[in-house]
Amino acid sequence: MKWHAFSLISLLSLLLVAGSATAQTIHVRGDIPFDFIVGNKTLPAGVYDLGSLQMADALLIEADNRKSSMMVISNAAETFRPADKTKLVFRRHGDQYFLAEIWVKGSQLGRELPKTSREKEVAREMAQDVTQQRVEIVASLY
Asked: Are 79 and 24 in contact (CB under 8 A)?
């Protein structure tokens, strides 16, 4: 019985360590030259700080002037090659920009924001006129 308890505790400890190893803290600042959409909220152009909260999936997005802020849930993203620069990636549909990904230079792990129903609707409306474009903004660590 003691062996089973020890095995269970060891397994849980291993899972906890593995889970925390995949979590990544992100703290980046970007000067975004256009209005952009996160979730269902449109944020004005400006300097923004994006940081992960203790809850690994939550991101706080806050304007440098503190006039706009919001929290959003993101997903883990992974790539084979480490990011060549710290950057914010947007999906552009027509003249609307949707925050899509956050990457930190040298890391293979990033954050990805899922497409919202609003973005899917805009993409459907624009499908005949314009294709989706990927727009990258260089960011810095803070």
From this structure: no
